[in-house]
Amino acid sequence: MDQQSRGVVLTQVNITDTRNGEPDVDIIAIHGLDTKSPDTWTWRSRDGSRPTVNWLADADMLPSKMKQARIFTCDWPADLFQESDSIPWTVREFGRRLLAGIHNMRFNSTADGRDRDRPIVFIASCLGGIILMEALTIADNPQSDYVSIRKATRGIVFLGTPFRGTAFQDIAAWAVPVLKTWALLGKRSVSQLLESVKRSTFYLEELVRTFTRLCQDKDSPCKVHTFYETRETVLPRKILPPFLLPFLDKSKPLSDSRY
């Protein structure tokens, strides 16, 4: 694996129908914090009585609508806790490694490198969306090694991405200290990604402004669709380890997760 893309793995999850020609689009799905593929993209019934459904990979789901697409999951080091002696990655470092992983996949899949111009549609969940925005702003430079990825990006679907970061600031007062304490007990540390996102709304505001201008570029426009929760959610239940959840004050939901 290329050193620059270390930790980022792209896996094709469908069989592309090439009877009518070459694949016409690459769909790349990026999961969020403290999860992985295929869990993010798989539906499971609560009682386990019904078969699971992976809407990216199952033949009667997305592949049935996008028969000539190549559909990839993109796994990145999203663990909430990391080894205390490991070098923490910033959002920008995650973005660079994401670009390197995509670049390697598209250049190495064919001998002539023609895949680099194939249109890309991204699906990004939660904090994966922040990393994607950072990655595309890095690539939006004529001198960048990854400018072809930026120019090939035609559409993005964001799923619950915290564009303003307010939900994470709401939990910072106590949830992050709790996580840090638990991490120390296991001689680990909390992911720098969570720290970076919750520390400064200015960073996110500036990133969103830059990304918006990028998407409105006349030469390489990019369509964006966002989906988010509209009901109140106790956000710590999505972040804290399960064994800490009983300690939550259930009568006082900590945060409304509307982004």
UniProtKB/TrEMBL annotation:
Q: Which GO terms describe its cellular component?
A: endoplasmic reticulum; membrane; mitochondrion
Superkingdom of the source species: Eukaryota
State whether keyword Membrane applies: yes
Q: Where is it located?
A: Endoplasmic reticulum; Membrane; Mitochondrion
Q: Which UniProt keywords apply?
A: Endoplasmic reticulum, Membrane, Mitochondrion
Q: Tell me if Membrane is a UniProt keyword of this record.
A: yes
Primary localization class, coarse: endoplasmic reticulum
Question: What protein does this entry describe?
Answer: DUF676 domain-containing protein
Name its species. Trichoderma harzianum (Hypocrea lixii)
